[in-house]
Amino acid sequence: MTETKKDRKRIRTIDLVYIALGAVLIAVCSWISIPTTVPFTMQTFAIFFVLSALGGKRGTISIVLYVLLGAVGVPVFAQFGSGIGVLLGSTGGYIVGFLFIGLIHWITVHFLGKKLWVEILSLAVGLAVCYAFGTIWFTVVYAQENGAIGFISAFSMCVIPFIIPDAIKLALALTLARRLSPVLKLR
């Protein structure tokens, strides 16, 4: 069966709606936060959910849209933050690192399929890359503002407290996405 121009346009429109909703979900979840040096938020839950529910391509584009909205001044980041200043600040590396989670998930699922173990592995590896990138970024920016800080000190302050909560968020997001996918007809 051939796809008409109208069908292709409709699919693109639906994709755009899903992408926009994914970016909105990430923004809303970023506002749910407990302020600390690196705020505890529900952003990672939303990142995991959007990637699993929408797929690698739409999910990654949702993350890009979220980051761009924040960069141009829409208050979508934690504690209603926005602007290039937030992205260039000490925690901006973790926000930029969300893009790595999306890209790693997209590539991995593309080549290995959307099996549960593949999604868990891709999201966990993506999160590890996000942690590493964000922590390196944090140490550089923190050193410029406050004096040198070791990678291990930054890692203990910015990553270790988040490992268990992020693992729980990953499990919850995958469970929810897999249960909602048949209803939303996203797979």
Secondary structure blueprint with pairings:
Elements: H1 5-31, E1 33-34, E2 40-41, H2 43-54, H3 56-71, H4 84-88, H5 92-112, H6 116-146, H7 151-158, H8 160-184
Antiparallel strand pairs: 1-2
Helix pairs in contact: 1-2, 1-3, 2-3, 2-5, 2-8, 3-5, 5-6, 6-7, 6-8
Brief account:
This protein has 187 residues and is an all-alpha fold.
Keywords:
187 residues, mainly alpha, 2% strand
Account of the 3D structure:
- The two termini are 20 Å apart.
- This protein is 78% helix and 2% strand.
- 41% of the residues are buried.
- Strands 1-2 form a two-stranded antiparallel sheet.
- A hairpin with a 5-residue loop joins strand 1 and strand 2.
- Helix 5 packs antiparallel against helix 6 (116-146) and helix 6 crosses helix 7.
- The model has no long low-confidence stretch (mean pLDDT 90).
- The chain is built from 8 helices and 2 strands; from the N terminus they run αββααααααα.
- The longest helix has 31 residues, at 116-146.
- With 187 residues, the protein is mostly helical.
Could you name the ranges where pLDDT drops below 50 across 5 or more consecutive residues?
A: none
- Quaternary state of this entry equals single chain
Overall radius of gyration: 17 Å
How would you classify the helix and strand content by structural class? mainly alpha
SS summary, helix count: 8
User: Would you report the number of β strands?
Assistant: 2
Helix content: over 70%
SSE string, helix = H, strand = E? HEEHHHHHHH
- Cα distance spanning the termini: 20 Å
Strand line-up in the sheet with most strands: 1-2
Tell me about the largest β-sheet: 2 strands, antiparallel
